[in-house]
Amino acid sequence: MAVESIEVRNVEETTLGEAIDLFMEEALLGTSPETYRWYTCRLGLFSKAFNPNTKLSEIAKKDLIAWWRGLEARTLEEPPTLTVDTFHGYVRGPRRLFSWLQKNNVIFQDLTKYLVLPTLPERQRKGVPDDIVVKIIEATEGNLRDRAIMLLLESTGARRAGVASLRMQDIDPDAPEPYCRRATVFEKGKRTRSVFMSKLALEALKEYLATRNSTSQYVFIDTRPGRETNKLLPGAINQIIVRYKKQLGITGVCSPHQWRHRYCRSLIQNKMPLSTVQQLAGHKSIQVTAMIYANLLVDELHEAYDEMYRPLNFEKFDDI
């Protein structure tokens, strides 16, 4: 029985390493640096496992499955040497690569479709507790830049990259209501969307801008001496939160993305329609929103059921 392997149009020229380079150059064009680094890591490990000089036509289905089972075995060890989340990422990277190669006619068939994505454990995406958010924002009193950043995270649900890359032309704090509380953020590469801030966040932003001494086009800048024209990097927002966590003795997860989860959680718990939450969160589809916050939606659905369901009148069961 012949070994099933990937068929390539230009079989003599296309190696795994060349295919990865092509994918990174074309498929990831315009994506964020974080996304680019993510694929560089996952595909680098995949390339190392199969050798970058291997022709795509020489990669057999049985070899892919053996590689998958090797990763799975590491998650089943005691103690595990690979988390399920990492296992999931290692598989998702090559699946995206070969799917793209097939769609762009580099290969005839995608054998990675046989590699099942590991099931990730269900998690409550509740985000940072409200009282922690209040403590951190109160602790920013006296640091106008940090206060504006934290209040924007709290009230807009923007990703950290969106806040860090905010430009002066993306805001208009002196416009009439409600336009003064709108901003355009760039997230996930070049994707843009509008976000809406609270009145408290707007006031904090105005106070910060009144003292901001920089010619940079970016709203939030590096405050270290000699770097006043440098934009604030997304990772710096994590460092700001860590600094206040240490100052307040706070433990537990408190990343910018957890602030985003808190934002979405509060909207759902306040009965906002899921389709509106999806748009405010900047998710690609309502299915993404539903998947992430499924546990919260069950509570919402149950409450709606108890409020709206009206039983029929069955006299036989009146005593129940």
Provide an overview of this structure.
The structure is a single chain. This protein has helices at residues 16-27, 33-50, 61-76, 84-103, 130-139, 144-156, 160-164, 199-211, 234-248, 256-269, 274-281, 286-292, 294-308, and strands at 182-187, 191-196. With 320 residues, the protein is mainly α. The chain has a two-stranded antiparallel sheet with strand order 1-2. Helix 1 (16-27) packs antiparallel against helix 2 (33-50) and helix 5 runs antiparallel to helix 6 (144-156). The longest helix is centred in the N-terminal third of the chain and has 20 residues, at 84-103. It is globular, with a radius of gyration of 25 Å. It starts with 15 loop residues before the first helix and ends in a 12-residue tail after the last helix. The model has no long low-confidence stretch (mean pLDDT 87).
Explain briefly what this protein structure is:
With 320 residues, this protein is mainly alpha-helical. It has helices spanning 16-27, 33-50, 61-76, 84-103, 130-139, 144-156, 160-164, 199-211, 234-248, 256-269, 274-281, 286-292, 294-308, and strands spanning 182-187, 191-196.
Describe the protein's topology:
Layout (H helix, E strand, L loop, with lengths): L15 H12 L5 H18 L10 H16 L7 H20 L26 H10 L4 H13 L3 H5 L17 E6 L3 E6 L2 H13 L22 H15 L7 H14 L4 H8 L4 H7 L1 H15 L12
Antiparallel strand pairs: 1-2
Major sheet summary line:
2 strands, antiparallel
Count of beta strands: 2
Alpha plus pi helix count? 13
Q: Structural class, from secondary structure content?
A: mainly alpha
